[in-house]
Design goal:
The protein is built from nine helices and ten strands. It is of the alpha/beta class. It has a seven-stranded mixed beta sheet, sandwiched between helices. Strands 8-10-9 form a three-stranded antiparallel beta sheet, covered by helices on one side. Helix 2 packs parallel to helix 6 and helix 3 packs parallel to helix 4. The radius of gyration is 21 Å and the shape is globular. Bound molecules: pyridoxal-5'-phosphate (PLP). The site of pyridoxal-5'-phosphate has 12 residues, from helix 3 and helix 4.
Length: 352
């Protein structure tokens, strides 16, 4: 993997750029990814069919299964361990509700609210916070669940996923991993964690309201509290009345689908899965490290760069879209970005 993307390093296949309408200077995927043309056109067609009365709810099943299978390839999981979800906060609520009274939940104090709040809102739980840098050291047999983001939203720090899985297994601690800022560019091996959850509107380039969870092989402790008709073995046969009928695989945790979102998600996630997470990682981290080098920083393993700078305003003036987070400027690099984006951002930040 090139630590820094050089002028002449191979980029991802340049034909990829025709997949996007306008991505020049867009360094804000950590807030919201850019939808590819294929996804946007498919959603537009689905909306037109809706308006003309020519669509049927069951038409969307095929898109949902395409999205589920493509996500499995991205997450390093079997598709029968993937469920669809709407938001991370919903997934966190479902994990929190599955824990017994008094369960000890260990979290990082810098982590994203949608991961944390559902645990804090459940008065039955004993939620404990430590700095992210100390999280792995605090996992011991008394901890029932560790809940943490694979990549921090505020500054892009990446937790050591292998160590997290190993230490948790050694201590009999369950794991809940938020992959919202990771899935797409970071290899995850989701099967190593009890539950992972991520919204798809950032690095999975999908409409807001689509997302995925994965469950591990020992999932009997998880309560499908959001089960509905779509959680049945055949959703179209579980529309009415008792008894409770649930799919045997992870589809029992499916929430009722946001139809149009998954039309987009199917195309976007397939596009990314076809490129491959390793290639995306090399490209995105290589670009991020080119910026880090220009700013006099050591290389890192993240596609997100967080800078303490007073020149954030210069970025907008140079046509760069970034975001302000935790008093710093956050820039994120993805499949549609180029060395030109990096160099324009660096020139603006350095006043060159
Ligand atoms: C790590 C992380 N988790 C979750 C979210 C979004 O949460 P939700 O899907 O509940 O809106 C974000 C958004 O920035 C995030 O960075």
């Amino acid at each position: 993997m090139p630590e820094v993307m050089g002028d002449n390093d191979m980029m991802l296949d340049q034909s990829l750029h025709v997949q996007f309408f306008e991505s020049r200077g867009y360094l804000n995927t950590a807030s919201m990814g850019l939808g590819p043309r294929s996804a946007i056109e498919a959603v537009q067609t689905a909306l037109a069919n809706w308006g003309s009365g020519s669509s049927d709810p069951s038409d969307f099943d095929v898109d949902i299964e395409r999205a589920r299978r493509a996500y499995a390839r991205i997450a390093g999981a079997d598709s029968d361990s993937v469920a669809i979800v709407s938001q991370v906060s919903v997934a966190s609520g479902f994990v929190a509700s599955s824990l017994p009274d008094g369960a000890i939940v260990l979290c990082a104090e810098e982590d994203f609210a949608s991961l944390l709040f559902p645990f804090l809102a459940d008065g039955r739980l004993d939620v404990r916070f430590v700095p992210l840098a100390e999280l792995l050291d605090h996992i011991d047999p008394s901890v029932d669940l560790v809940a943490v983001s694979a990549v921090q939203s505020a500054d892009g720090r990446v937790i050591d996923l292998s160590r997290l899985a190993e230490i948790s297994t050694e201590n009999g601690t369950r794991t809940y991993l938020d992959v919202s800022q990771a899935a797409g560019w970071l290899p995850i091996d989701a099967h190593r964690f009890d539950v992972t959850a991520g919204g798809a509107y950032k690095w999975l380039l999908s409409p807001r309201g689509s997302g995925f969870i994965t469950i591990g092989s020992d999932a009997d402790w998880l309560k499908p509290i959001y089960a509905g008709w779509y959680s049945g073995p055949d959703p179209w046969s579980s529309l009415y009345g008792p008894p409770l009928r649930l799919a045997e695989d992870a589809r029992r945790f499916d929430v009722s689908p946001a139809w149009f979102d998954f039309v987009g998600a199917a195309r976007s996630v397939e596009l990314l899965a076809d490129i491959g997470v390793e290639a995306i990682n090399e490209h995105s981290v290589g670009l991020a490290n080119r910026l880090r080098e220009r700013m006099g920083l050591e290389p890192s393993n993240s596609a997100i760069v967080s800078l303490d700078t007073r020149r954030g305003d210069a970025l907008a003036a140079a046509g760069i879209k970034a975001s302000a987070r935790a008093g710093r400027v956050r820039l994120s690099f993805y499949v549609y970005n180029t060395v030109d984006d990096v160099d324009r951002a660096a020139d603006a930040l350095l006043g060159e």
